[in-house]
Structure formats: structure tokens, C-alpha cells
Amino acid sequence: MNKTESSSTALQSETEITLGVLNAVQDNSFITQRSIAQELGIALGLANAYLRRCVNKRLIKVQNIPKNRYAYYLTPQGFAEKSALTAEYLSASLNFFRNARSQCVDLFEECAKRRWTRVTLVGVSDLGEIATLCAGTGGIDLLGFVDENSTEEQFAGRPVLHDIGALSAADAAVITDLRDPQAVFERCLTVLPAERVLAPKLLNIARQRPRLPE
């Protein structure tokens, strides 16, 4: 991933967390930091940091209440910021969906052209869900997902297997992991030849590691 794309991903994540904090406070003024962390699926320390940042930016007002607790309220500035972040997040999500859909369609068309009709997706993720929507044409038989780190047994209506060796039943694999796609790609190479392990361009996977001069 290049610097620009890495910064974009970080910005999207920051926007998503800030928006989540603002939404949580709007829904429940008496919400705790621990509840915010659980609701957003982030560490307690990170939830605390974003909450303090929102307070420092005067997006959220804190008020002491009995029993050493706090109440949180969105300020007028907070309401305005929440609206702006919602628009930004939806725009970024829509762009991701469009790019992902287009690139997945191209990959499935390439598989069909090479008569690799039995395809497995590697990685339970939003990208994987989008890929399932694109596999209905071109005679592709989508076998399901392989994800060694997932606890899901089914995702997007498809079975999820947890052993990378299950890829041996497929003609080709398409990487849909968003956590560490490079590592997942390299794991797939232990089962399938490199030309049969495909990935959307947006994942920025290096098909060969750079070699330093001796």
C-alpha cells in the first residue's frame, strides 16, 4: 500500500470511529466509555482517546452526574460535525463499493476466460460480501470462503472453512481479506500456484517480495 492510499485508509478509519462516538453519545447521553468501546469494537483506551478529542474540539460537552459518573451531550458544533462526517463516510463507502465491484467483476471474467470456474474467496470481509454479488455471471461456481482467523461458519450465504488447505478443491482463489491481504496471499501460495491466486488491485498486493541487492 502506498503512502497516499495508507493515509486514505487511516483517514477513513478515523472518520468512522469519530462518527461512531458522536452517534453513540447522541443515542445515549449516559453511555460509558466501556460501552462505546464495545459498540464500536475498539479498545477501551482508543474509545477514551477519541472521546477526549471530541470534548477538546467542543463537539461533545461533559457533565458530572451523581455517583461519580458523567453524561455526554453533543454540542451544536457536534451536530454539524456529525452531519459532515456522515456525508464523508458514505461517500468513501460508496467509492469503495464501486471500485471493489468493478475489480471483482474483472477477476471473475478472467477466471471464466481461463475456465477456472470453481473459485474460493479468501477472507471474510465487506470486500468478500461484495465479491459474492459479482460471481453470479460467467459460469463461476463460488465454493465459499476460506478464513483461518474467522469464527464464522457461514458468511454472505456461503460456507466458511478455516483451513487454507481447503483451497486445493478450487481452480482459483480470490483474496478478499482486508486485515492483512499480503500475508493471506502468501499463505495461498502454499496451496495454489501464483497465477491461480488473484486479488483486486485495491488491496495493493505485491506478487513478489522486493529483493535487496547483495
Plain-language structure description:
The protein is built from 6 helices and 8 strands. By secondary structure, it is an alpha/beta fold. The chain has 2 domains: 3-74, Arc Repressor Mutant, subunit A, CATH 1.10.10; 96-203, NAD(P)-binding Rossmann-like Domain (Rossmann fold, 3-Layer(aba) Sandwich). Mean pLDDT is 88; it is low at 1-11.
> Structural class, please?
alpha/beta
How many structural domains are formed by the residues? Answer: 2
SSE succession: HHHEEHEHEEEEHE
Return the CATH architecture of the largest domain: 3-Layer(aba) Sandwich
Separate helix tally:
6
Portion in helices: 40-55%
Return the average pLDDT rounded to an integer: 88
Tell me the Rg in angstroms. 21 Å
Q: Sketch the major β-sheet.
A: 6 strands, mixed
Low-confidence stretches: 1-11
Distance between the termini: 25 Å
At the fourth CATH level, what is the homologous superfamily of the largest domain?
A: NAD(P)-binding Rossmann-like Domain
The rough form would be described as: elongated
Beta-strand percentage range: 15-25%
Could you write a compact summary of the structure shown?
The protein has 6 helices and 8 strands. The chain is an alpha/beta fold.
SSE inventory with pairings:
Elements: H1 3-27, H2 33-40, H3 44-56, E1 60-65, E2 69-74, H4 76-113, E3 118-122, H5 126-134, E4 141-146, E5 154-155, E6 158-161, E7 172-175, H6 181-188, E8 197-198
Helix pairs in contact: 1-3, 1-4, 2-3, 4-5
